[in-house]
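[Q] Does anyone have a clean structure-token version of this?
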Amino acid sequence: MILSSTNTKTTKIISIFLSFVFLYCYCCYAKDSIIGGEFLNDDGSSCLESENKIFQMGFFSPKETTEVPRYLGVWFTMDPKTVIWVANRDVPLLDHSGFLTLSKEDGNAKVLNKSQSVHFTTSIATGNMCSIAST
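[A] Here you go.
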């Protein structure tokens, strides 16, 4: 009887532990790309991570806080305090409503706020960028 009670407690502890491990892995999952129409939200846990896990891209605040202003940047995974590129350096977000998206139409990346105001955009030319002249 004591053995059965111990096994039940052990099973419960293991199942709770595995649930926490799964939840942690799920919450900390980082994708390595997004496609047109997808979003990267400023939710405090979402980021893009390079395939080799050296770089991450996401939203951050310049001080050791989660408060505003908010920026989209790239940093070293092993040293998140070393930000190496900032998208919206001149136009920070004033709250956590920001998101990064890729346009389905032209492939440009955009950092927008909840009102769809543009805080940063790339300028990728559409059409054939490499044309071959025939004579």
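[Q] Thanks! Anything notable?
[A] The longest helix spans residues 2-27.
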